[in-house]
């Protein structure tokens, strides 16, 4: 398992992925089969790292939202029992 990345690293990986896509789009007939295979592997690695980063960010935000919601509920419950 790879170590967590920062938001800046995720942005850099996204830019690299976009650049590779632009190369393939701009020069589709000048790229050899073996090069496509290497680019495909790199694209999978880059997009996977970005996906893991975003999933972790979303999970962190949901955890914060759930914690906030639970404390709101305890306040409401406390008021309703008074």
Provide structural commentary.
- By secondary structure, the chain is mainly α.
- It has one domain (8-80).
- The protein contains 2 helices and no strands.
- It has helices spanning 7-26, 33-80.
- α1 (7-26) runs antiparallel to α2 (33-80).
- The radius of gyration is 22 Å and the shape is elongated.
- The N and C termini lie far apart (50 Å).
Radius of gyration, Cα only, in angstroms?
Answer: 22 Å
Termini separation: 50 Å
Percent strand: under 5%
Strand pairing plus helix content: what structural class? Answer: mainly alpha
- Count the DSSP helices: 2
Q: Can you give the helix content as a percent range?
A: over 70%
Helix/strand order: HH
Low-confidence stretches: none
Mean pLDDT: 88
Give the topology.
Blueprint: H1 7-26, H2 33-80
Helix pairs in contact: 1-2
Structure in a nutshell:
This protein is mainly alpha-helical and 82 residues long. 83% of the residues lie in helices and 0% in strands. It is elongated and about 60 Å long.
Task: Considering the chains and any ligands shown, give keywords for the structure.
82 residues; mainly alpha
